[in-house]
Amino acid sequence: MIYTVTLNPSIDFIVEVEHIELGGLNRMTRDMKFPGGKGINVSRVLNQLGADNTAIGFLGGFTGRYIDEMLGKEEIRTDFVNIADDTRINVKLKHGDETEINGLGPVIREEETKELLHKLSQLQAGDIVVLSGSVPPSLGPDFYGLLIETCRKCGAEFVMDTTGEALMKALAWKPLLVKPNHHELAELFGVVIDSSEKLVEYGRKLLEEGAKHVLISMAGEGALFITADRVYHASVPSGTVRNSVGAGDSMIAGFVGTLAMGKDPIEAFRTGVASGSATAFSDDLAVRETIDRLLPQVRITEW
Q1: Percentages (nearest 5) of helix, strand, coil residues in the chain
Q2: Which candidate, 135, 141, 176, places its Cα nearest to that of 155?
């Protein structure tokens, strides 16, 4: 089973306007509401790929009920901890460039935290847990470490989609996958990466520190899959970018879901890139039809 953990979910309220006047009345030309949060995004794309998964984390209030209902309509299995505070709403304002206004998130109480840890303590060897997204301030910066320790004690694998100190600390626990972009990789090691050789060098450092698989996304220049002795590059399919939210989560879903279904890592890499591109070319997250259409366009070459 694949489990996705979303500690700070949201309703993503997407608002499109033709003109914006600060301090005045503005009218929407279109609006959309989606269940949001990086782990939830992964679950939704895993579901499109036919990969069995369960979405867990914290949900509360009328906003939390809405998210759970929306996931239920997509036939996604959920096992969230019900919390006292309301789940947040994030506003994505589209007027030329996209402007995001994200909520802080709820206060998580001690008994709610214990309930989530208990759920994770029931995992089994062979399960995969995807840990991604922001942590509510009330949980503190080291909460991911506690989740990782709980998962590894059960023999479960974990995927870590975060940056900075939290990612560096996670490497010692040997994550199944890490996926920084080229800017995050440079920031992680405090260096300037100005060549493909340096990109590969520091990507391999993630392997040396404990990661089992390393993907590096490079926006329009494609993505890299780095192993101990080889480097593979994936091209990006052609299309018009319409959505900046969830492409990285979709790449993780494509890679992990394909790997969990017994396919080889190169095929998992191809599916990951196709899934990320399918989301970038859509208003919402990738659907199976678009992923399948883009797969033949993803060319994998050895660097």
Answers
A1: 40, 25, 35
A2: 176
Distance (Å, rounded) from C-alpha 27 to C-alpha 15? Answer: 10
For residue 210, what are its two tokens?
């404990």
* Cα–Cα distance for residue pair 219/205, rounded to 1 Å: 21
Q: Supply the pLDDT for residue 110.
A: 96
Amino acid at 301: T
**Alpha-helical regions (H) of the chain:** 38-49, 61-73, 110-120, 143-153, 164-171, 182-189, 196-209, 247-260, 265-280, 288-294
Q: Are 151 and 175 in contact (CB under 8 A)?
A: no
Hey, is 20 helix, strand or coil? coil
Indicate which residues carry an active-site annotation.
249
The model's pTM: 0.93
Count the neighbouring beta carbons within 10 Å of the beta carbon of residue 93: 17
* pLDDT tens-digit readout, 87-127: 999 999 988 778 899 998 899 999 999 999 999 999 999 99
Structure tokens at 89: 């709403």
Q: Is 109 exposed, middle or buried (0-12, 13-18, 19+ CB in 10 A)?
A: middle
What tokens were used for 88? 């947040």
Q: Which two tokens stand for residue 235?
A: 């091209």
